[in-house]
């Protein structure tokens, strides 16, 4: 008989197997293997009435209208277009009330969604198409030209104002397909929890973007994890009268996890902004009495910096919580936000595309005040801290690579056995590539990306540590630190700085500010001033772009 695990109730650490266990407890998962995500979400009892609102047009979709449209679209895809289990379908669209509808219709058939950033270039989109091999694309009239070299049949989301380019093969419109009556001739293939639901491409901050294969079971785990967290924060019966605004990109795991899956299961209302604009967002918060505002860290900072002006222009009294993801918030940001908006909770989370956006989170201001932390391990998630050099599993307060294991961890990378083997071990542990430690109370602290550590004369320097110090300077609005190649040292830290309005801080001013606070090997030895720091939609710094810029003149 296996020995009973002895787990420290404070840290969640078990000495016998060097594993950290979630203090949140387990989530409830369906034992029926033959249930798919769409069926799972639609079967949830809830008290909600309006599912989705288009902030630009005011168009509403009630929950009954939403699920009727899902069934109509699925019927049309199956009967009229011959879409079958295993087919990949591309969604190239800005945020829309139709994005969740299209996604869940496709998934209900056992077909697979692959999503793409509408800002991507034609060549970037073609690269993803070449890799994922979709049989069909959903896109808007404005984005059609980006698919003209793909030869893909296209379903239009919205009506075109002018005829599409002659090379484009438009086979239907979403409006037409949503009028389809459900028919007995629809092919109903069995779709199980282990079947693939999505093929999302990781942001590629440290290398080539890879297709992340997530299953229906992974997303069911996402729904249950986020729902349990919201119930912790809001109460069991309160979710049906909450209103979230969708500011995060729906093509990203953050958007898919929350707005395609979880909120529809909870019965909450989602107000959708077609594109992010600060003032349009704040107008929508006021108009639709939004209660929850999911954001990425740069927007949180921007709101703090403009708080006085914002509070004069907009009534934000309905807001009870801001949810931040993408990167941990610093002490200055959390305290700055609480000072400006004392009636709001600020919650945050950590996750990867490879973990379907799930990893750790905070659910209260008290937890968010564990400054620099990404929160406690998510329900049913396990973690290890592994020494990247020796492979040794480390205890509390020791830095190493964070490994995660749980119901939301991906199946692997699409058509990339080598990358999968390097990232998932034989027991299902995901090697996150993040340098972390877990403290004596079970809070995870993300120090930096392992691949982004700067190697100065054999010493390792974490860019995030220097960035946090730089952001504390009263004249610096934003900052990024990268490795700059050097013949003698190997690499040294270089900073890209965005000055605040009216600031004249110099290169020596930046370097001296840091030099007084860090060990000599961590000093910044080169500075460049820029108007903005390039970032992914989730707020991660695109260091590879800055490295390319810095080294282009060498």
TrEMBL record:
Native source species: Daucus carota subsp. sativus
Superkingdom, natural source: Eukaryota
Family annotation (CDD domains): 4CL (cd05904)
The protein's annotated pathway: Phytoalexin biosynthesis; 3,4',5-trihydroxystilbene biosynthesis; 3,4',5-trihydroxystilbene from trans-4-coumarate: step 1/2
Organism phylogeny: Eukaryota, Viridiplantae, Streptophyta, Embryophyta, Tracheophyta
Keyword Nucleotide-binding belongs to the record: yes
GO molecular function: (E)-caffeate-CoA ligase activity; ATP binding; trans-feruloyl-CoA synthase activity
Single GO cellular component term: peroxisome
Annotated signal sequence range: none
Name this protein carries in UniProt: Uncharacterized protein
Pfam family, one: AMP-binding
InterPro entries xrefs: AMP-bd_C (IPR025110), AMP-bd_C_sf (IPR045851), AMP-binding_CS (IPR020845), AMP-dep_synth/lig_dom (IPR000873), ANL_N_sf (IPR042099)
Keyword line: ATP-binding, Ligase, Nucleotide-binding, Phenylpropanoid metabolism
Family: Belongs to the ATP-dependent AMP-binding enzyme family.
């Amino acid at each position: 008989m296996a020995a009973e695990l002895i787990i420290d109730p404070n840290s969640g650490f078990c000495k016998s197997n060097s594993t950290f266990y979630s203090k949140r407890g387990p989530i409830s998962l369906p034992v029926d293997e033959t249930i798919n995500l769409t069926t799972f979400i639609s079967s949830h009892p809830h008290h909600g009435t309006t599912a989705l609102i288009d902030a630009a047009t005011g168009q509403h979709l009630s929950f009954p209208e939403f699920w009727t449209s899902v069934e109509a679209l699925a019927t049309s895809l199956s009967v009229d277009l011959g879409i079958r289990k295993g087919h990949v379908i591309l969604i190239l669209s800005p945020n829309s009330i139709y994005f969740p509808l299209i996604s869940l219709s496709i998934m209900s058939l056992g077909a697979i969604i692959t999503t793409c950033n509408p800002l991507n270039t034609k060549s970037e989109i073609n690269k993803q198409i070449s890799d994922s091999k979709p049989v069909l694309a959903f896109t808007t009239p404005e984005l059609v030209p980006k698919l003209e070299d793909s030869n893909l049949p296209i379903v239009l989301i919205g009506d075109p104002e002018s005829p599409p380019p002659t090379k484009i093969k438009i086979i239907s419109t979403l409006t037409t397909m949503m009028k389809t009556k459900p028919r007995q001739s629809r092919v109903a293939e069995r779709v199980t929890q282990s079947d693939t639901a999505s093929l999302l491409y990781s942001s590629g901050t440290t290398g080539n973007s890879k297709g992340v294969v997530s299953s229906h079971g992974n997303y069911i785990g996402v729904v249950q994890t986020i729902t349990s967290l919201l119930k912790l924060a809001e109460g069991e019966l309160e979710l049906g009268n909450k209103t979230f605004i969708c500011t995060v990109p729906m093509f990203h795991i953050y958007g898919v996890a929350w707005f395609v899956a979880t909120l529809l299961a909870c019965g909450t209302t989602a107000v959708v902004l077609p594109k992010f604009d600060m003032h349009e967002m704040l107008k929508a918060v006021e108009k639709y009495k939004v209660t929850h505002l999911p954001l990425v860290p740069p927007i949180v900072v921007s709101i703090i910096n403009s708080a006085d002006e914002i509070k004069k222009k907009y009534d934000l009294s309905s807001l009870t919580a801001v949810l931040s993801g993408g990167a941990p918030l610093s002490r200055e940001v959390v305290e700055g936000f609480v000072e400006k908006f004392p009636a709001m909770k600020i919650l945050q989370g950590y996750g990867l595309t490879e973990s379907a956006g799930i990893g750790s989170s905070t659910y209260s201001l008290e937890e968010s005040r564990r400054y620099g932390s990404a929160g406690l391990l998510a329900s049913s998630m396990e973690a290890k801290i592994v020494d990247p050099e020796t492979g040794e599993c480390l205890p509390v307060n020791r830095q190493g690579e964070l490994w995660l294991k749980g119901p939301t961890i991906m199946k692997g990378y699409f058509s990339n056995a080598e990358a999968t083997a390097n990232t998932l071990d034989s027991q299902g542990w995901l090697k996150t590539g993040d340098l972390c430690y877990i403290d004596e109370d079970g809070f995870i602290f993300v120090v930096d990306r392992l691949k982004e550590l700067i190697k100065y004369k054999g010493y390792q320097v974490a860019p995030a540590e220097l960035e946090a110090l730089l952001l504390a300077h009263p004249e610096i609005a934003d900052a990024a630190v990268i490795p700059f190649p050097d013949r003698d040292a190997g690499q040294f830290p270089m900073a890209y700085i965005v000055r605040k309005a009216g600031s004249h801080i110099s290169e020596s001013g930046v370097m001296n500010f840091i030099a007084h606070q860090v060990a000599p090997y961590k000093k910044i030895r080169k500075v460049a001033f820029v108007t903005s720091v390039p970032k992914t939609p989730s707020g991660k710094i695109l260091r590879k772009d800055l490295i390319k810029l810095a080294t282009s003149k060498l």
